[in-house]
Amino acid sequence: MNRRNFFAGAATAVAAASVSRVAMATLPEPVTQGSTATAPPLVPPTGRAYNPVVTLNGWTAPWRMNAGVKEFHLVAEPVVREMAPGFKVNMWGYNGQSPGPTIEVVEGDRLRIFVTNKLPEHTTVHWHGQRLPNGMDGVGGITQPHIPPGKTFVYEFTARRPGTFMYHPHADEMTQMAMGMMGFWVTHPKEKHPQISEVQRDFCFLLSSFDVEPGSRTPKVNTMTDFNIWSFNSRVFPGIDTLNVRKNDRVRIRVGNLTMTNHPIHIHGHEFEVTGTDGGPVPRSARWPEVSVDVAVGQMRQMEFIADEEGDWSLHCHKAHHTMGPMGHEVPTMIGVDHKDVADRIRKLVPDYMVMGDKGMADMGAMEMPLPDNTLPMMAGQGPFGPAEMGGMFTLLKVRRDQKPGDYRDPGWFKHPAGTVAREVPGAAVPPTARAAPTSPAAPGRADTGDATVRKPSSGHGAHNH
Description:
- The protein is mainly β.
- It contains three helices and 25 strands.
- Helices cover 4% and strands 30% of the residues.
- The strands form six sheets. Strands 1, 11, 12, 14, 16, 17 and 19 form a seven-stranded mixed beta sheet that branches.
- The protein is globular and about 80 Å long.
């Protein structure tokens, strides 16, 4: 991360208007990020103290204090995001990445956020979920003029309530969000809050989706439903970092959804409570235990639990197609079809031809098929016991008793105590499937088909003849 020092000087506050070249000389220098690794939490160097979050495969934007105002500088620009090792996508984002950097502030902070537009078209920034003056809401043409290419606008408001939020454009929204323009926002409470617990680990990430054809690098922005890349913070498994915690830590996970569909986020091995939304903290009396929470389009959800079970626990979207890599939506189902003879004939013409899907898709996790350049495998990732057969919105919550406080490094694979792993039963043959005999003769007017009892219409008087 390039955490360069900020230029000194007072910034001219210009609300919803372009900033002059003279004023540009006084702006905080924009800080960019090139790495896709999860950055350590940014302990606040100035301003009020708070317990910082960790952005999964992301980072937190630094700021400068200027006469009691916390100043940030976002640059909207084309970026290249590596979604998994060797798979790069042309996106639009902020400060060198998509998603952009997480903005962390404290309730009551006075804020000044400069936004420079280096995109080929105009843009704005909407501060999703914030209470602020209407002219700072970031809806182009409604609450402000659009930010033209090459111009800088400034937004000024006070962080009025704690919670989990995000930012994104409200200008050519379909295109700009489909290209990856989004970022996380966390407002910490200024003092102990009756509905907000103190946690040892606080993670956040955004759900995003893209339609990237095999062999290409730029998302198809007009796609409405048939997305093929499903990601946590624009990373896909096995390129998503793990969430590493100490046993008995209180853990908070904040998730926001900027895709075109809902996502049931499921955590293995633990129960959690939804403790907050983009509307604010959930009263304790309104919470209940869950293992999955549905995060609808445009929503934020905040989950908390005690990590009291050691192991490598899956954390994923429970829509099965969202835990895979790119796949065709018109692939025929070949389960049960014996096409060995046909495959042998095809291989005489195409030696590398592979049979796919006649016994299910599990083989896809192990075989290595030739792929176009810059194409993500459909099912990838390896675990200690073999292919994980997962992709997309999937990662692991790693709970360890010896993980040091504040240590976010990956501890490696869990070492299971003896006798605690599912195992083969030695010498046990697969028994034949027994077919139950009918317990009574078929009733009059019914036929025993062997699989189901079907009532047949009777003939004669009263029958429906057509």
